[in-house]
Amino acid sequence: MPCPFHSHQPDPFGEARRKDGVLVNEFQGTPIPMLLRHEDVRSAAKNWQQFSSDAPFKVPLPTEENVRTVRQLPLEIDPPAQQEYRELVEPFFNRAKLPGVIAQVEGLIDSLVGQALSRDSIEIVREFAIPLQSRALACLLNMPQSEAEVWIGWGMHVFREGDGGRKGSALEAYANGLLDQAAAAPGDDFFSALTLARFQGRALTREEMLGYCSIVFAGGRDTIINSISGVIGHLGTHPADFEFLRADPRRIVGASEEFFRVLSPSTHLARLCPAGAKIHGVTVEPGHFVSLNFAAANYDETVFESPEEVRLDRRPNPHVAFGFGPHLCLGAPHARLVVRSLIKALCDRVARIETLEAVDRYENEASYRRRVAYEKLAVRLTAR
Ligand code: HEM
Predict the structure, then answer these.
(1) What percent of the chain clears pLDDT 90, i.e. is strictly above it?
(2) What is the value of pTM for the model shown?
């Protein structure tokens, strides 16, 4: 029997992946071949000389030259400088593994679930996932929770929702303000750490600091929001899966990985081919781009048996939802903390999730249409 979750989320890349290995899609008037196979995505992700990230504004697709003025760090640069930029902030991202931070995030999720239970119904995307993403990020960055209230107002995406250009410059002005405050009176938050950091024996420039701020605010936003609504939507429509997790909480870690694989919140990211490339018969001219399609790789049937089925006990699960190689997502420990704590709180406190209204969210492109969680998800939670 087909899984109902996937009856409305078929793999849009399956046919092209099996037949050709690549799918060319036109992004902003430029044809870009997307690599679809697990093996191809992993080997290109490691081969930064041929598939380079040294392309400011052009690693995300659609490109972002109209919505920001700074190169995102360490995303849009190659090793070895990328590794140095990465090491500067890695301790902050690894705060997600500290018992104190884990307890804080668990506490805030517990309180959001408590509030949701006290209401007749709740719209998960706007009233639950966005506040949760913003407040959890404040924990990670060691910022006061009051600051998260500002971030909640940014909506689903800091650039792509509403007037991107205006929102992008407002975001940079806001980040500049945080950095000014931090430089004047450094504390123990992320922005202060940037003002104090040393890179190759010098302080970071303001532009570099803004490059980190940009990815911290933009990169981990819709990805986390879609993970949260995707998990709640699935458990609501699959009570047997909900029971399976409740029966043994040790299953939550593996189940979270399966959710990241199935949801693949970051569909793909681009790479520049400075010397060109030839992939499965498709020629990429020097200076042109390809994309690494993580979502397609995560449904590669040569690696994942019945990839369209959500198997919460899938093992092994070598998904590439967080990328692969030198740019492996720095926010992954945080994303895992949020999703695991969410599932745990739902198992502990919620007996039933009733879906009242579900409006799917789509990525619409000329050569594919991919479902990415929800635009709107209204549910009623019943306490245990
Ligand atoms: C489910 C949530 C998330 C997903 C699916 C995701 C996905 C990804 C992917 C696929 C990459 C690889 C980029 C590449 O190869 O070009 C990446 C890199 C990155 N992500 Fe995430 N991400 C998530 C959450 C976050 C969060 C919450 C943050 C920050 C708070 C974050 C910060 C970063 C950074 C800084 C990089 C660049 C690492 C580097 O270039 O060395 N991500 N992410």
Answers:
(1) 91
(2) 0.97
